[in-house]
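batch job 7 of whatever, protein = ABC transporter ATP-binding protein
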Amino acid sequence: MAAIEVEGLTKDYGEVLANDDVTFSVAEGEVFGYLGPNGAGKTTTIRTLMGFQSPTSGGATVLGHDVTDEAELIAAKRRVGYLPANPAFDEDVTGREILDLHGAIKGEQRREELLETFDPPIDRKVRDYSTGNVQKLGLVQAFMHDPDLVVMDEPTSGLDPLMQRAFNEFVDAERERGLTVFLSSHVLSEVRRVCDRVGILRDGRLATTERVADLLHRTGKFVRVRVAGDVDAAAFDLDGVHDVSCSASADVPPTGADGGASTGERSPVDGPVTECTFTFTGDVNALLDCLDELTLVDLDVEEAPLEEVFMRFYGGPDA
Ligand SMILES: Nc1ncnc2c1ncn2[C@@H]1O[C@H](COP(=O)(O)OP(=O)(O)OP(=O)(O)O)[C@@H](O)[C@H]1O
């Protein structure tokens, strides 16, 4: 059984078709990222999954329960954790009182462990919380009853980089425990780090669902090479080389008797150096053979940024 099954989900607000025939599923144990630009319809799907609003047509099941059926929804929610986009807790009480209340309703098996990880100031009134501290309290509340599935709308918004890292490590550990996680995000480095698969939403329609590893593989490597002499794109006439750009390198290494004065080493080249960059999706052995023909000064090979792939899906109708 899939943890989440969304079938033909459509939500028409009248002026806006926020979800347009959206269909996807999330397997048990999967960490699924739901991505899209502002207004793409992510929160609309999430609120439908949590039963806060009804679809115009189509539907969804969560842990096998139909979210449009009230009794089934209640049964599902016992085993689901939820972190909304902007958690709104009662401001007149302390974090501890909020957790006590949630604990009494849903359980609190993991409360102490989560407080150690996220550490919100639970003895202060929520009114005095920073945005990040509200988010940390929301994370404790979402996970503390030891759910089977956690649904989060932009979980790291408001968290500082250290806490974002703690969150990523936490999600990794949860995946190991077999938890299913559905999260929406704009933070591409986070998606790359924590998600197994992503769904990309644009204007209410699902543009694609794909494994993160496949997206990265399809994007290829970004290669930056500095070569002795005047070299042009023809030097990289090879299957899988795209978008070659070559220019004289401004950063020419020191040469001659004083070359490498700071290190005491002599530079390997005299004369001009050309810097070339390209994206590579071909056979890495063929690339090495090609580079072997050149005198290299420097070489960087990196994964192409996921941003580039996402922009293709996020961009306008021509993307
Ligand atoms: N209750 C509502 N009534 C009318 N229109 C709405 C309502 N809720 C959302 N919308 C519209 O539906 C579209 C999708 O909104 P939604 O909040 O689902 O997008 P989102 O992808 O979560 O955006 P963001 O990343 O900015 O949070 C937007 O155009 C929004 O203005």
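notes: Residues 161-177 form the longest helix (17 residues).
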